[in-house]
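ok new one. same drill as before - structure tokens go in, u give me an amino acid for every spot. 478 of them this time. try not to just spam alanines like last time pls lmao
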């Protein structure tokens, strides 16, 4: 069920008042801790060392009384289905800094493309402030989009990021409605990000609900799915194991965990080392409704989230990032071509330094261990039976905002039968002003029979994410 507009005004207040979600520290951690980086290996910092306003970053997303298991559903596949409802958020911060002006404007440009090329999709846009509400309303008017297709919702917090993907995990419940699982994230770039799922649920009524899931510690960017299988980055296996061990400090929770393990594995919980080793994957399979393949099992993840470096294409194939592919293409540019690409990338990203962005990207990515992590990921997927095609990838420099991340894996896709009996296959593909790599990626998707809708995302990706990170299909036919 979609939200219906009853008036020409597109700013939609929730049907009933929303309570501000509490922001205590994550259970099992000191009350003054916070995660302030998208790097999942970064330690948690004392709030006393953070700038004003970040004290609210650390909190637990789940209520203490919520059940640990059996509250999930079937996770939405990335590679199939038509998107019926897309959720977006127009935030105003990135950790303790204001959202850059060029990023704000870049998002509006990307959404203009989505509104145009997804004509049957409804969009719910949660806005952090009045400026965002006004700008989205103006975009709808200027783009000629049917106002009934876009609902603009005021946020329930004054500091919010743009990264909607990592705050929730949409699944299909047994009765067919969407359930937004609220997990314990590994980082919080906006103190109000925990309010997004409850806000969406209240706006949509019975068709979409939200549910605390205290057993999970996984960002939405670290899980992928096709219609047969779920793919989880190994970082999330470790993080969820740590979360369950924190919960097990409570004897009642410990008993709940052991009973789940015995039921899910068919084995007694006597061997605790074995139980803790196997638990995370069993939990993901139980709560997401499909078999799980853990990626980067014996090596580092190539990127902090696997959606930055891997893309399922249907049920039989994966596109896997390859820095060496990108580096060879960039090194082959003539001086004039390189200068032109540097200028276009800087313009796209809103970077005015005049530096050699290509040189900085190559320096960041051109090392044997980095390449080995990508190659090992491709080998794991091939061993699991998937056809592999490599994709150029340049992950950039962490936490600097100085170069765009050139990820062509971080996309959104639709695949569904059209009215005339043909199959529609679309990919909404990030582009960065680096023509040689943009075209290479575009041709790879076209070679897999996808219609490519280019999205200019340099000003977004310099904050270390792209279109999949900043959007979420919360109703999808599959």
């Amino acid at each position: 069920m979609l939200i219906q507009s009853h008036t020409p005004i597109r700013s939609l207040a929730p049907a009933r008042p929303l309570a501000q979600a509490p922001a205590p520290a994550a259970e099992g951690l000191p009350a003054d801790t916070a995660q302030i980086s998208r790097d999942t290996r970064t330690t948690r910092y004392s709030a006393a060392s953070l700038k004003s306003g970040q004290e609210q970053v650390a909190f637990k997303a789940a209520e203490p009384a919520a059940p640990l298991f059996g509250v999930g559903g079937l996770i939405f596949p990335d590679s199939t289905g038509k998107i019926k409802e897309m959720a977006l958020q127009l935030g105003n911060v990135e950790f303790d800094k204001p959202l850059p002006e060029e990023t704000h404007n870049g998002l509006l440009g990307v959404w203009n493309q989505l509104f145009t090329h997804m004509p049957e999709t409804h969009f719910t846009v949660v806005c952090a402030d009045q400026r965002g509400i006004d700008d989205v309303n103006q975009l709808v008017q200027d783009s000629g989009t049917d106002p009934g297709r876009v609902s603009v919702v005021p946020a329930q917090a004054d500091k919010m990021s743009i990264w909607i993907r990592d705050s929730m995990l949409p699944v299909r419940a047994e009765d067919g409605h969407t359930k937004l699982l609220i997990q314990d994230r590994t980082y919080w770039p906006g103190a109000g990000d925990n309010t997004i799922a409850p806000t969406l649920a209240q706006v949509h009524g019975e068709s979409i609900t939200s549910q605390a899931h205290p057993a999970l510690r996984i960002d939405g960017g670290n899980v992928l799915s096709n219609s047969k299988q779920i793919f989880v980055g190994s970082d999330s296996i470790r993080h969820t194991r740590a979360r369950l061990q924190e919960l097990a400090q409570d004897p009642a929770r410990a008993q709940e965990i052991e009973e789940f393990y015995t039921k899910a594995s068919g084995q007694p919980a006597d061997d605790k080392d074995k139980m803790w080793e196997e638990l995370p994957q069993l939990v993901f399979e139980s709560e997401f409704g499909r078999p799980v393949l853990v990626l980067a099992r014996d090596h580092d993840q190539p990127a902090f989230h696997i959606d930055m470096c891997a893309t399922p294409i249907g049920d039989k194939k994966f596109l896997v990032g390859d820095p060496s592919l990108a580096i060879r293409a960039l090194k082959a540019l003539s001086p004039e071509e390189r200068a032109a690409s540097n200028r276009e990338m800087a313009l796209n990203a809103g970077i005015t330094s005049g530096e050699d962005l290509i040189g900085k990207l190559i320096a960041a990515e051109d090392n044997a261990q980095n390449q080995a992590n990508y190659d090992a990921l491709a080998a794991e997927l091939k061993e699991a039976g998937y056809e592999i095609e490599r994709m150029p990838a340049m992950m950039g420099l962490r936490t600097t905002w100085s170069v765009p991340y050139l990820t062509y894996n971080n996309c959104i896709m639709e695949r569904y039968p059209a009215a005339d009996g043909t199959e529609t296959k679309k990919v909404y593909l990030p582009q960065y002003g680096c023509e040689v790599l943009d075209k290479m990626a575009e041709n790879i998707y076209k070679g897999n029979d996808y219609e490519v809708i280019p999205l200019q995302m340099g000003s977004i990706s310099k904050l270390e994410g792209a279109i999949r990170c900043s959007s979420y299909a919360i109703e999808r036919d599959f």
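The two ends are 16 Å apart (CA to CA). and btw The chain has twelve helices and 22 strands.
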